[in-house]
Amino acid sequence: MSIAVGELAVRFGCELVGDPDRRVQRVATLAAADPDSLAFLANPQYRRQLATTRAGVVVLDAASASQCPSAALISANPYATYARIAALLHPEPPARPGVHPGACVDERASIDASASVGAQAVIGAHCRIGERVQIGAGCVLGEGVEIGADCLVHPRVTIERGVRLGARVRVQSGAVIGSDGFGFARDAGGWVVVPQLGAVRIGDDVEIGANTTIDRGAIEDTVIGAGVKLDNHIQIAHNVQIGEHTVMAACSGISGSTRIGARCMIAGMVGIVGHLDICDDVIITGMSMVAHSIKTPGVYSGGIPAAPAALWRRLAARFRRSEALAQRVMRLERAAGMESKEDRSHD
Amino acid sequence: MSIAVGELAVRFGCELVGDPDRRVQRVATLAAADPDSLAFLANPQYRRQLATTRAGVVVLDAASASQCPSAALISANPYATYARIAALLHPEPPARPGVHPGACVDERASIDASASVGAQAVIGAHCRIGERVQIGAGCVLGEGVEIGADCLVHPRVTIERGVRLGARVRVQSGAVIGSDGFGFARDAGGWVVVPQLGAVRIGDDVEIGANTTIDRGAIEDTVIGAGVKLDNHIQIAHNVQIGEHTVMAACSGISGSTRIGARCMIAGMVGIVGHLDICDDVIITGMSMVAHSIKTPGVYSGGIPAAPAALWRRLAARFRRSEALAQRVMRLERAAGMESKEDRSHD
Amino acid sequence: MSIAVGELAVRFGCELVGDPDRRVQRVATLAAADPDSLAFLANPQYRRQLATTRAGVVVLDAASASQCPSAALISANPYATYARIAALLHPEPPARPGVHPGACVDERASIDASASVGAQAVIGAHCRIGERVQIGAGCVLGEGVEIGADCLVHPRVTIERGVRLGARVRVQSGAVIGSDGFGFARDAGGWVVVPQLGAVRIGDDVEIGANTTIDRGAIEDTVIGAGVKLDNHIQIAHNVQIGEHTVMAACSGISGSTRIGARCMIAGMVGIVGHLDICDDVIITGMSMVAHSIKTPGVYSGGIPAAPAALWRRLAARFRRSEALAQRVMRLERAAGMESKEDRSHD
User: Alpha-carbon torsion B95, B101, B105, B111, what sign?
Assistant: First the structure.
């Protein structure tokens, strides 16, 4: 497939600088592009690659256009425009509708004729699979699972009993949706299992990463809002609620019953403790521990960047001796006849 | 199903305040309960919901009973009592005994007639599956795996060769038990694989969370004691031993050959380095790095809660300059003719 | 199987102290060994077990040989020598060549006659499976996957479309190779999916741990160099490149487009942010956050070990008040007529 850059400009509302009849066949990075490729510049870290790119056309913003050695498609949001062009140039291979003969579908399940179910997949009783849904090989859907139209479920995903997905949800391989929440009541001599009776509800246009887990609610449902994007290895505990269009990067975890607002951005390896409220429009940077509710939109941090080990060892030792240092300062203040500013509480 | 609260009081040893003939059909949260529902109050964070609950009956402790607007079931341990009542009101759907025709069972495996094996499951040679065990769809059991009575293995679990589970173990989807430990010996030009020859032994009443991994021992077995509860995304490396009734929250990891005592409580995203001994009754709070053995029961911490990013940046900068600050204090001490309290060692 | 220690000495180039005709049948730990067992001493933490071992022979270094109560095989690298002997004494059970009748193989796939494919595995069109490869039960390989000779893929692994593995790669259960990278472009009202068009290339002799995920590249491939060893629960984001023989311990994550050099050693729960360059021969200790590129080989750290909670609370409070302390020191300096050493910037 190839397409004229003039047509791209029209379709995606870009200003074109260059020959509208030039055609591109594929996307490429600035560094690797050839004249048949379209590249893009969105992250300023890669600006130095612009001068030498051999791309046929580059999607970029107005400020960068003058430095572009090739044709330019000028967009206020080059990355989003690139994403749409890439989807046009590289369409996903269509799945053949129908149930693979090696799948195992309960006769009480309802599967739309336009949907596809892969080999070795298992579909439980009373499941409802919508139009054009793709269920990958080796997936297991428990009883009464509902999958909205145009969902794409990669191979080897588990969706346990009663879980409901909206439309256009994409689930990567290895994800588990609807595992039992971690609920145990302490009792003499051990722990009593607390039945996990809720399910999981996933809104439209949600992405669920590879090997990510979302536990079913203890009583009510765990709820993932429309447009939420979850990366790989994320843990969502029971009763969590995530607001619309929030994104979470890999390896982060949200403990039970915490509510996350809309349009939040949570970086990688962030841990959020249970029973908190995080308001809308909160950004949390990588490896932060969120131990208190957040009531004000803004950016929050909790990680300290690594340093050479010898230096870090000294800093960690200073940290461990920080009480002693404060007491030395107080002694100096007393000796100087100064009122000590030492505050009393520890929090 | 419905049950009289009077009968609940008798069965579970609660004092009842209210009409013993009132019947409840289900459990619910305090906020969402209707008069046919039973709710509970265990976490004081939810106490404010008690006054307005419409629940038919609430399980709570004696101190809260006077504020209960409905019938009250008074228990010294409301959460455990709630758990038992919930299990009574909402029994798990029974599995139909037998091997699904879509499963693949080696003829040398022994499966109790009361057990069930789901579609597409694979059971290796010489496996022994006990009474009333449920093996979910898509599970793979290697050669010689032993599963004790009443275990519940959710779909898509891997249990590798020679692993043994006690009775009543529950394994959530995506878990891997008996993967090879991470053992490599450095050698000229790279790494030599160290054969992982042990297996994994899991005690009775253990819970293993979704996508949790437990590596087989290098020479002897990795051992998980009875009553241990492991949440999702946990990593247990080779040769680890965990004592009875210890619980671990999600995303924590224990490195190789470390021994954890009994009745420990390990919060989420905790990392424990290898070859350590953690004694019984240790509590470790979230996101701690445990780098040394612990010989005294108690609570240990290692995480610093996140703060607004602008503040955190200043604090992190102070941390990086903490050596300079200590030297400034020492200079002041010298100027004041004070003996410097500066200690010499860095640890 | 049993073998004479004299033969082991010859085969593995060790000096033997003791009777060359003594035979051993298996490996064991120093503590559990009996006279038919071979043990080893590599980690000095276990030296105290040497004096009382009942092992028939111990592999150790020259410095420890004089304290060995049994026959000794002296090696400059006892752990690597042990690994090779263990592989000899405990060979992996050979897989029976051929495709299990319960597997589902696309007719356009090419599978070497010496390879084995387990029950319920799914092999997509145009896959190429090399000599002596073992594909475990329940694995799913997408279209056009290539697997080099002698690879061992444990059960329930997903290898998505177009991924290529070199020779002798071992993949543990639950791993996902080639999941879509986490690419979304912000746009009015939500996020646009950025097509993930690259694949994953894995070099020879790579190890991929249980439930580890490796995302396909956004445009070009994600690349894992020869000899790399990845433990369980690792996240490798799109476009990452890892140099040869680098090892990563469990639960670590590398964000998108970061390049890691050769022979690096990355401990557990390390997080590395995106678009960085980490040079060759870098060691990063556990739970570090790597937020900047590293240009100099060496050891880097970022974690502070846990402490008793009461102490830790005070230290965390000091950390939060560290700005105030610095200002008190500045006030003292001014009062003493000293030039303040306070620097101005925050980084």
Answer: positive
Work out the average pLDDT over B53-65.
96
Q: What is the mean pLDDT of residues C19-37?
A: 96
> Does C233 participate in catalysis according to the annotation?
no
- Each domain of chain C, given as residue ranges in start order, spans 3-89, 98-300, 314-347
Percentage of residues in chain B with pLDDT exceeding 70? Answer: 98
**8 A C-beta contact, residue B266 and residue B251:** no
pLDDT of B262 over the 70 cut: yes
- Amino acid, single-letter form, for residue B229: K
* Rounded CA separation B208/B176 (Å): 9
| Nearest C-alpha neighbor of B257 from the set B217, B293, B230 | B217
SS3 A112: coil
pLDDT at A347 over 60: no
CA dist C9 → A28, C5, C33, C65, C74 (Å): 56, 6, 19, 14, 8
Vertex C29: Cα angle to C28 and C35 (nearest 5): 55
Q: How confident is the model at residue B346 (pLDDT cuts 50, 70, 90)?
A: very low
Question: Domain B98-300 is of which CATH architecture?
Answer: 3 Solenoid (2.160)
pTM metric for this prediction: 0.96
Domain A3-89 fold is: 3.40.1390
Given A90, A238, A245, A346, the catalytic residue: A238
Contact flag B255-C251 (C-beta cutoff 8 Å): no
Predicted local distance difference test score (pLDDT) of residue A41 = 97
Chain B residues touching residue A180 (CB < 8 angstroms):
154, 170, 172
> Above 90 in pLDDT, residue B186?
yes
A134: which 2 tokens? 């793709």
